[in-house]
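Dear colleagues,

For the upcoming journal club I promised to circulate an example of a predicted protein-ligand complex. I picked one with pyridoxal-5'-phosphate because it came up in last month's discussion. The inputs are reproduced below in full, followed by the predicted structure.
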Amino acid sequence: MNIESPLISALELEHTYGAQNYHPLPVVLHKGSGCRVWDTDGKEYLDFLSAYSAVNQGHCHPRLLKVLHEQSSHLTLTSRAFHNDQLGKYCEFMCQTFGFDRLLPMNTGVEAAESSVKLARRWAYEVKGVAPDRALVVFPEGNFWGRSIGAISASSDPDSYGGFGPLLPGFIKVPYNDLAALELTFQDPNVAAFMLEPIQGEAGVVVPDQGYLASVRALCTKYRVLMIADEIQTGLGRTGALLACDHEQVKPDILVLAKALGGGMLPVSAVLCSDEIMLTIRPGQHGSTFGGNPLACAVASEAIQIILDENLTQNAASMGSFLQAGLQDLVDTYPILQLTRGKGLLHALVFDENQPDLAWNFCVKLMSLGVLAKPTHGHIVRLAPPLVIKENEVDAALTIIQKALKN
Ligand SMILES: Cc1ncc(COP(=O)(O)O)c(C=O)c1O
């Protein structure tokens, strides 16, 4: 390889000067449009990761670029010390679209999830009547909601929490998809909330049994525990419903959104809930300099509007079925694959757990053939293209996946 190539130079610079907290595939991307991205040598790929589901609308959507340019030429940031003319209408639009009273604007997913935990604790003290500093929040094992001290304190993955102690108290872990274990923890009257992903993304696209979400809802109501749905990865059309909770007609008490809310343009996250919960936090008790900035509000409104106007949720459902059928055929044909699972356009191929390099080598092979995907937890490959994907593109990806498996 040419030592002066942009690929080598970009890799070397990152390696020399960047923190080494990721293990990316050796590809340097330069351009994106829809489901496609191009590297610095001009080679084209189908993006089957979508920046961990943050690019549901496709790369560089023209409507988002237009809003980004227009709003950024007027006003980008005021802080919340002053009002701006975008935040109010954005909050109204989001509350009406998702059926909640109020929205708390934040930036990244982890901030929004952490904010929901703060809201739940506050609600427990002020509304439920839990004694000071005794509130508990329950999380399923395998959860992932980011890398803050709060998020890793809730994690059951030693790679996440190991070596970063001391961790936060007041968090309880139960097995995912286990209603009996959950109900047992709810016997404690100090339990404020149960926070879960409707499908666990980072854990390897773990889909709970049909009926689990509805039963969680019922248990939360019965024991007066807030149900917090972390739809940061599963929401905004990804699983073939606007929210993954919609598959079981479940409304959580607190909804957490991020990733695709920013349309792949900038970090935008949100917590949505009722007056009863949101108004327990008063001026000066929570905030973020960039949260609710006018640029983010304008981009996020357009990001949601695109999902609605372009029927991306319906496309995720139909393209997801097509993808799933193709993946199942591959599982039936190639014994190195154990299974496939997922919903809509959030799928995983599961390889043999005892062959840890297989999934990585498979992704490297996929890359060389023109599809980008990344292993999660060593032996699982997540497949989550932008929701704008078309049938011929799914078909092309399936052909490439088959070729990589033959290798
Ligand atoms: C379900 C879920 N919640 C929260 C997060 C954290 O989001 P962010 O990386 O924007 O902080 C992620 C990120 O992958 C996620 O998948």
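Two points we might discuss: The mean pLDDT is 97. Residues 52, 108-110, 113, 144-146, 197, 201-202, 230, 232-233, 258 surround pyridoxal-5'-phosphate (CB under 6 Å).

See you all on Thursday,
B. R.
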